[in-house]
């Protein structure tokens, strides 16, 4: 943590504004009068009631304006100029990576007068030809997912092909390979969540509880996110606001809720899985500094039917008669229950898959000025897993600790995600 703070301080001193930020949103448009003529030098103001963020710009000589690098959330937009009535757009919801077009038409009148417009969802993206889908906070919260795996919701994006797996490595897009998908977390490359040995052992490396929303761009995306040929998956973490908010949860599964496979005995193997945790966030200093923290735990004991082929009684007797010194070796094989042929029996048993996982995140956001913002985020995921390997007593044991430290200054993500694994 000391190293993280030192690096954050250095980044804040050296960072420069970033032009392309895949985890942010943009409002742009054109300001005209009632005749359709461009209105230059109009004041455009965007305000977030959730965090108090206030961003301004002026329209150009051609009447266009652009407010880039806005955090996701709900905004009010006001366009004004002396000699015209102000136009205000309320409740503009910005999603991750969105390019929102809001055109303003100003009428002659006093600047103290205003016209209020309720913003509605755009039917067509007028700024980009990108094919993409946003999985929002309501979908993340309300839609069922096996094991609370956020990546299973990627199947809702256009062009998705799901092979029925249980992690982010099982979905591909538009005929591309699964390895062509690229992942970012708050704009920082996080493709390690689908590569390396950890993909088969860690389930909460990006906890569902820590995600505000994510965008899956499947084709015709812009250059800043085109680091691979497949889908560009941009995940955004939750942040604090001016209101304290949080919650707790627990999900469970057991053998009473599962169906029997063709290889299971009449009585299902034991199964107990609990996923639990919570989140809490709010202001440290209203309109200036915010925090958000999450914890999610997984406890699983899953019994699975394991089948092996073992020597028959006749083979055992032949080995012992011919080579008594092999008694200790032949006795390592359990006695089978079902004859296959004269030489082999089938042996069935229950193997126990035990998994303990603890995932957490803490994020602190601070706004120095309306144009200078920074945050520090720390994630950790500790996995302890034991899984049966076959029916004859072998086990795979894995112990993983995955940590990621990210510092962002003025929208520039300058401290890359770090994954540390030990086994």
Can you tell me about this structure?
It is a single chain. With 423 residues, the chain is mainly beta. It has three domains: 22-118, Immunoglobulin-like (Sandwich); 131-305 and 350-413, Beta Complex (Ferric Hydroxamate Uptake Protein, Chain A, domain 1), CATH 2.170.130; 307-347, no CATH class. It has four helices and 24 strands. Strands 17, 18, 19, 20, 21, 22, 23 and 24 form an eight-stranded antiparallel sheet that branches. Strands 3-2-5-6-9 form a five-stranded mixed sheet, with no helix packed on it. A five-stranded mixed sheet has the order 10-15-16-13-14. The longest helix has 13 residues, at 2-14. The two termini are 23 Å apart. Mean pLDDT is 81; it is low at 10-20 and 410-423.
Number of strands: 24
Percentage of residues in DSSP E strands: over 45%
Shape: elongated
In sequence order, what are the helices and strands, one letter per element? Answer: HEEEEEEEEEEHEEEEEEEEEHHEEEEE
Strand pairing plus helix content: what structural class?
A: mainly beta
**Secondary structure tally, helices:** 4
Low-confidence stretches: 10-20, 410-423
Q: Could you tell me the radius of gyration in angstroms?
A: 28 Å
Layout of secondary structure:
Blueprint lengths: L1 H13 L10 E9 L9 E6 L5 E5 L5 E7 L2 E8 L5 E9 L4 E3 L2 E3 L7 E5 L12 E5 L1 H6 L17 E3 L8 E3 L8 E4 L2 E2 L21 E9 L12 E6 L7 E10 L16 E15 L3 E23 L1 H10 L4 H4 L7 E2 L4 E26 L2 E17 L6 E15 L2 E2 L10
Parallel strand pairs: 1-7, 1-8, 6-9, 13-16
Antiparallel strand pairs: 1-4, 2-3, 2-5, 5-6, 10-15, 11-12, 13-14, 15-16, 17-18, 18-19, 19-21, 20-21, 21-22, 22-23, 23-24
